[in-house]
Amino acid sequence: MLLTNLEYVPDRKIVKHLGLVQGSTVRAKHVGRDLMAGIKNIFGGELVGYTELLQESREESMQRMMQQAESIGANAVLNIRFSTSSITAGASELFIYGTAVILE
Amino acid sequence: MLDLIILIALLALGYTVGSWQERQHYQSIQARELVLNKLPAIATKRLPEFDRPCRTELVTGSVVISVDYFKRFISGLRNIVGGRVSSYESLIDRARREAILRMKEEAYTKNARMVFNVKMETASISKGNRGNVGAVEVLAYGTAIIADPQD
After folding, report:
1. Scanning A103, B17, B53, B80, which has its CA 20 to 30 A from the CA of A68?
2. If DSSP codes are grouped into helix, strand and coil, which group holds residue B58?
3. Sequence-separated (6 or more) residues with CB below 8 Å from residue B30
4. Three-class SS of residue A88?
5. Cβ of A18 under 8 Å from any chain B Cβ?
6. What sign does the dihedral A9-B145-A79-B118 (CA atoms) show?
7. Rounded mean pLDDT of A35-58?
8. How large is the ipTM?
9. How far is A68 from chain B (nearest CA, A)?
10. Cβ contact (<8 Å) for A44 and B119?
11. Quick one: pLDDT at residue B131?
């Protein structure tokens, strides 16, 4: 599966457009990480726990999007966009979407 | 009285540790930016004709950075009179540059020549029930153009 945020793939022709595919996860941070983040909030600096958490969730969203793309027979997803929104104080949604296409 | 002492202690701690960390972080950012200058990250969508790549790959870099207690306090004061909140400006600047650096580092380990169509996304992560912004997350992503091993 080829993933890119360009609108085309160099040197390859798009045979068929299959429409939008998407994947999302909603993740809540757990108490241990929250506690550490609370302490870090006094000193400032990087919150490594959160960085990892968000990265894992994003990875999962990506997997879901790829699954959806595979199920409709695509072999590439173009023009991928990421979006993050916080739903409540504790949870955030990571949303990835793109255009599924068949490349020759 | 005790509350005041705790507040002052937190402010002092936040100020000293926070500004020290910021200096350290800026030093590390500048050093790594120098190293990664040879790998340009561009916001153009179209690849130039002459640079026909053989492979493209999505690269991402993200970071969550929190503001220290002192800066949050100052920005709270700033909210009363309005104007530039410079204490948050440096926070976001650090986060953006760090995210771009991480994206470039990922591209670099994949032997990329350039990163195209770089997009950035900023999300604030609210902490606690008061809903005040404690940290920002910045995600940078783009398409890495990876050179042929034969080149």
Report:
1. B53
2. strand
3. none
4. coil
5. no
6. negative
7. 82
8. 0.85
9. 18
10. no
11. 47
Q: Does A14 touch chain B (CB under 8 A)?
A: no
* Cβ atoms of residues A50 and B64 within 8 Å: yes
3-state secondary structure of A4: coil
Least confident of A1-5, A6-10, B62-66: A6-10
Provide the shortest C-alpha distance from residue A47 to chain B (in Å): 6
Residues in A touching B16 (Cβ below 8 Å) = none
Write out the two tokens for B76.
């709270």
Whether B71 shows a pLDDT value over 80: the answer reads yes
Task: Please report the pLDDT score of residue A23 as a whole number.
Answer: 94
Return the residue of B nearest to A40 by Cα: B66
Instruction: Name the residue among B28, B103, B17, B33 with its Cα closest to residue B68.
Output: B17
Q: How far is A8 from chain B (nearest CA, A)?
A: 9
Alpha-carbon separation of residue B72 from B20, B26, B86 (angstroms): 16, 20, 11
pTM equals 0.86
Q: Which two tokens stand for residue B18?
A: 């926070």
